[in-house]
Amino acid sequence: MQEEKILTLHPQGKQGVNILVRRYTVIKNFILKIIHQRKEITFEELCDLAEKELTDSFDGKVLWYLVTVKLDLEARGTIERIPKTSPQKLRLKK
């Protein structure tokens, strides 16, 4: 049986990618959990945490999926980049 996939969105309207729903869900839940706990986080910190927490249990390239799902969540209006932050910071969109 073929696993269910989701076509991700891109905030600039570029072509999304098809990824497995189970991988998407793991990464999405991780991103939202961390941002909810921290309120704001740099993308770099998010990457470091994801590598620490997910590498052993996740059956894919953690950072590739993190970038893909982060962009999708931005495109869907769930999270946003905080304007004029360097390095880039993320937060939940109100």
Protein described:
There is one protein chain. The protein has 94 residues and is an alpha+beta fold. It has one domain (5-92): Arc Repressor Mutant, subunit A (Orthogonal Bundle), CATH 1.10.10.10. The protein has helices at residues 21-38, 43-54, 62-75; strands at 5-7, 18-20, 40-42, 79-81, 89-92. It has a three-stranded antiparallel beta sheet with strand order 3-5-4. Strands 1-2 form a two-stranded antiparallel ribbon. Strand 4 and strand 5 (89-92) form a beta hairpin. The termini are far apart. 20% of the residues are buried.
Quickly give the CATH architecture: Orthogonal Bundle
The 3D shape can be described as globular
CATH superfamily: Winged helix-like DNA-binding domain superfamily/Winged helix DNA-binding domain
> Would you list the SSEs in sequence order as H and E?
EEHEHHEE
Low-confidence stretches: none
Number of E strands: 5
Which tags fit this structure?
94 residues; alpha+beta; Arc Repressor Mutant, subunit A; three-stranded antiparallel sheet; 3 helices
Characterize this entry briefly:
Helix content is 47%, strand content 17%. With 94 residues, it is an alpha+beta fold.
What's the helix and strand layout?
Elements: E1 5-7, E2 18-20, H1 21-38, E3 40-42, H2 43-54, H3 62-75, E4 79-81, E5 89-92
Antiparallel strand pairs: 1-2, 3-5, 4-5
Helix pairs in contact: 1-3
